[in-house]
Specification:
The chain has 179 residues and is mainly alpha-helical. It has helices spanning 2-8, 14-17, 19-49, 59-71, 76-87, 94-105, 126-138, 144-151, 155-165; strands at 168-171, 174-177. It has 2 domains: 14-105, no CATH class; 126-177.
Length: 179
């Protein structure tokens, strides 16, 4: 009964409460240190190759630093100031720092971008190619615009189907196979 009352009141063991926070901070630190080691190694190699060459801090390095400092509780202004001291003119904008801190505060673990869906290829599917073939069989003198109006496929897609998929080109106002 005593344990239930403690749980209901919001009390919990601090080590349990911050376990996920600690794991996130550990992972972010590991990624940042790895990025920093690569940056230093690249800087040293560049420095050895040509005297006077300076290393650059990549956007990924800056993003790692932003993640770590966000998890440590710093605000975007403090993070941007610290980055400015290290990076000089090659720094990301303060609005970018503010935008990137939000997902890290919400629990984002990785600094990589989310995968984006590919654009669907609806105009050059098998049905569209067959439709263009049927219209072209009726009249080989049709233009891309005319086929487009009759089929509902965009003129650019019709042209792409004719030239890429069907390997046709227009000679003397007729679509003929390309040799």
């Amino acid at each position: 009964m005593h344990k239930v009352a403690k749980l209901r009141s919001g009390w919990c063991n601090p080590s349990e409460k911050y376990a996920s926070y600690s794991r996130r901070l550990e992972e972010a630190a590991r990624v940042f240190v790895t990025s920093l080691v690569y940056a230093v190694l690249n800087w040293r190699v560049g420095d050895m190759a040509s005297a006077g060459a300076s290393g650059t801090v990549t956007v990924e390095d800056q993003r790692s630093h932003i993640e770590i400092e966000t998890l440590r509780g710093k605000n975007p202004t403090e993070i941007h100031s610290a980055l400015r001291e290290v990076c000089g003119e090659q720094i990301v904008d303060s609005s970018t720092v503010s935008r990137w801190t939000t997902p890290f505060r919400e629990g984002r673990v990785t600094i990589n971008d989310d995968p984006r869906p590919e654009r669907s290829k609806t105009s050059t599917d098998e049905w569209s190619v067959k439709l263009v073939v049927v219209f072209l069989a009726q009249d080989r003198r049709l233009t891309c615009e005319e086929i487009s109006q009759d089929t509902g496929i965009s003129p650019t897609s019709v042209f792409r189907i004719l030239t890429n998929d069907l390997q046709k080109r227009k000679i003397c106002a007729r679509w003929v196979p390309h040799c």
